[in-house]
UniProtKB/TrEMBL annotation:
Domain of life: Bacteria
Keywords attached to this entry: DNA-binding, Transcription, Transcription regulation
Keyword check for Nuclease: no
HTH asnC-type domain location: 5-66
Organism: Pseudogemmobacter faecipullorum
Full protein name: Lrp/AsnC family transcriptional regulator
PANTHER family: DNA-BINDING TRANSCRIPTIONAL ACTIVATOR DECR, LEUCINE-RESPONSIVE REGULATORY PROTEIN
Matches recorded under InterPro entries: ArsR-like_HTH, AsnC-type_HTH_dom, Dimeric_a/b-barrel, Tscrpt_reg_AsnC-like, Tscrpt_reg_AsnC/Lrp_C, Tscrpt_reg_HTH_AsnC-type_CS, WH-like_DNA-bd_sf, WH_DNA-bd_sf
Amino acid sequence: MSAALDDLDRKILSELQLDAEQSLDEIARKVGSSKTPVWNRIRRMKEQGVISRQTVILDAEALGLEACFFVLIRTSEHEADWQNTFLRALRERPEVLEAHRLAGDIDYILKVRVKNARAYDQFYQALISEVKIYNVTALLSMEEIKSTTILPV
């Protein structure tokens, strides 16, 4: 269920997505409001779950995590025990930035960030030692064309 947001809420969200470190005064000035209503709206949107958390975005390459793999997984297992083991394994692996269950020929896609191909192989070996997987295809991203956390509000 989506929250009811008005234009001012959307402006506030856009500003927070650009820079959550801005002061309430800065945000209020940019969205054409005052500090208290902006604070109240941010608090309400947090309570509603529209704003789930605030964080810092790190540069993966600056940290030596230069390889980004998209991992396509097919499984012949669809029982609850297998799925629980698989999901636990993914959640415990810090290399997995995203994991999605898909409709179609591929069951899951993972976004994995590691130092290099050797590090990916270590990740892969650890994963298949924990969970039975029918087929895995790893695709190395040659160039990141667009990456954003900014949602179109």
